[in-house]
Write a structure and sequence with these properties.
One of its GO terms (biological process) is methylation. The protein is of the alpha/beta class. It has helices at residues 2-22, 46-58, 72-89, 100-103, 108-111, 160-173, 190-197, and strands at residues 94-97, 115-118, 129-131, 150-153, 180-186, 200-201, 215-219. It has a single domain, classed as Rossmann fold, CATH 3.40.50. A 7-stranded mixed beta sheet has the order 3-2-1-4-5-7-6, with helices on both faces.
Length: 235
């Protein structure tokens, strides 16, 4: 078993390195200048902006857990897309699967109706935190099952086997098959996102400053927030 785990880890490293090489010419750039006549979505409130800044300034990425935070602008944009999804479904509960930077950037009122499921136990004192290990995708607290209108997912690895486990968890958390999904992963996983969630790639792509390869955003609902290019990226 230990040998199998080592081989799987080696395969994941090789996979990430290959994708990194293909995307090595892409670089993030700062600024809010217009891109194709459109601007980045503005945060919905100064409180949200403050919460995003607080999280990013106080929370270090744990590379042992493969943590890479979105930029502040990306956090705000994804949170706005989340709100659009909730408006469509007329819901208010969101499960953040391995996306703590988004959960902790919500307003206190929004967090009351949401949950963050993550392997990192440094947040276990937070009322909305629930431990999650994707190796046990069905090990979810009964109180969470079938209670969410939307799931946001960003696994620590991009392989099919990992995403299939996250899909199992997402289906358990969501109220029904018409609930909404926001997923971020490499564009090479586009067909996988379609088959698992019925998600399509958005025009907006996230800035993840310390990640060397580029992610895309996939949703199964229309989003104005994600319908413009990210001005932080040179594309």
């Amino acid at each position: 078993m230990a040998s199998d785990a080592t081989n799987d880890a080696g395969a994941l490293v090789r996979e990430l390195r290959e994708i990194s090489d293909r995307h090595s010419s892409w670089r993030n750039r700062q600024g809010t200048e217009e891109v194709n006549g459109a601007r980045a979505v503005e945060p919905s409130s100064s409180e949200e902006e403050s919460q995003a800044n607080v999280f990013l300034s106080r929370t270090n990425e744990n590379r042992d857990l493969n943590q890479y935070w979105y930029s502040k602008n990306t956090i705000e944009t994804l949170c706005n897309a989340m709100r659009e999804g909730l408006k469509i479904s007329k819901g208010r509960r969101v499960a953040f699967l391995s996306t703590p930077s988004l959960y902790f950037s919500l307003s206190p009122e929004e967090k009351e109706h949401c949950a963050v499921l993550d392997y990192d136990t440094s947040w276990e004192s937070c009322s909305g935190y629930h431990f999650y290990d994707y190796n046990y995708p069905t090990k979810i607290e009964d109180s969470l099952l079938g209670t969410f209108d939307l799931v946001v997912a960003d696994p620590p690895f991009i392989s099919r086997s990992v995403w299939e486990k996250y899909a199992i968890t997402a289906r358990l958390l969501l109220k029904d098959n018409n609930s909404h999904i926001i997923a971020t992963t490499v564009n090479e996983n586009a067909s996988l996102m379609e088959s698992l969630f019925g998600c399509k790639p958005a025009l907006f792509r996230p800035s993840i400053p310390h990640l060397v390869y580029q992610y895309s955003v996939f949703t199964n609902f229309p989003s104005l927030a994600l319908a413009v290019k990210n001005p932080e990226l040179q594309e």
